[in-house]
């Protein structure tokens, strides 16, 4: 087989095997159902609900708080990135829910171009893994442009389901 044909076959197999994620946007992130104050999109992924007056659902507010207690040190305030780690408000546009969970729980190491980036695993940190959905919905709201920078001005009350989950997960 010629070199040119080999390259063509290789390129076609790479294109055929790659999964291209369409960027998340406001329409895809729209809440279609709610249970106990927790919203999901049409695909069943956790999402947010922000009222016209700026009131965010409890889980988005909780995600803001949890993000700023553990994640902003590397990823910058409001997910805008830093010289140390990428802007999650951008990378979340092309990251699905399962990938987010996997990266946060297991960590990730990227080496290339003379630079090494390491995302530590947070799978055993209760302050993170007990609130993974919350962090996800907050960052998703930032990524699609519905949540402005800074602390949400208003929040919904904490649902009993959130209290129960927190008690169960944190062991208190």
Key attributes of the depicted protein:
172 residues; two-stranded parallel sheet; disordered N terminus; Methanol metabolism-related c-type cytochrome; metal ion binding
Shape: globular
CATH architecture: Orthogonal Bundle
Mean pLDDT: 85
Rg calculated over all Cα atoms: 19 Å
- Proportion of β residues? 5-15%
Distance between the termini: 65 Å
Q: Count every helix, treating DSSP H or I runs of 4 or more residues as helices.
A: 8
What sequence of helices (H) and strands (E) makes up the elements?
HHEEEEHHHEEHHEH
- List low-pLDDT spans: 1-20
Structural domains: how many:
1
Helix content: 40-55%
Major beta sheet, strand line-up: 1-2-3
CATH topology group: Cytochrome Bc1 Complex, Chain D, domain 2
3D architecture notes:
This protein has 172 residues and is an alpha+beta fold. The protein has one domain (23-170): Cytochrome c-like domain (Cytochrome Bc1 Complex, Chain D, domain 2, Orthogonal Bundle). It has 8 helices and 7 strands, in the order ααββββαααββααβα. It has helices at residues 3-17, 26-29, 58-75, 88-91, 97-106, 126-129, 132-143, 160-170; strands spanning 33-35, 38-40, 46-47, 55-56, 108-112, 115-119, 154-155. The strands form 3 sheets. A 3-stranded antiparallel beta sheet has the order 1-2-3. A hairpin with a 2-residue loop joins strand 1 and strand 2. Helix 3 (58-75) packs across helix 7. The radius of gyration is 19 Å and the shape is globular.
Brief account:
With 172 residues, the chain is of the alpha+beta class. It has helices at 3-17, 26-29, 58-75, 88-91, 97-106, 126-129, 132-143, 160-170, and strands at 33-35, 38-40, 46-47, 55-56, 108-112, 115-119, 154-155. The protein has a single domain (23-170), classed as Orthogonal Bundle (Cytochrome Bc1 Complex, Chain D, domain 2), CATH 1.10.760.
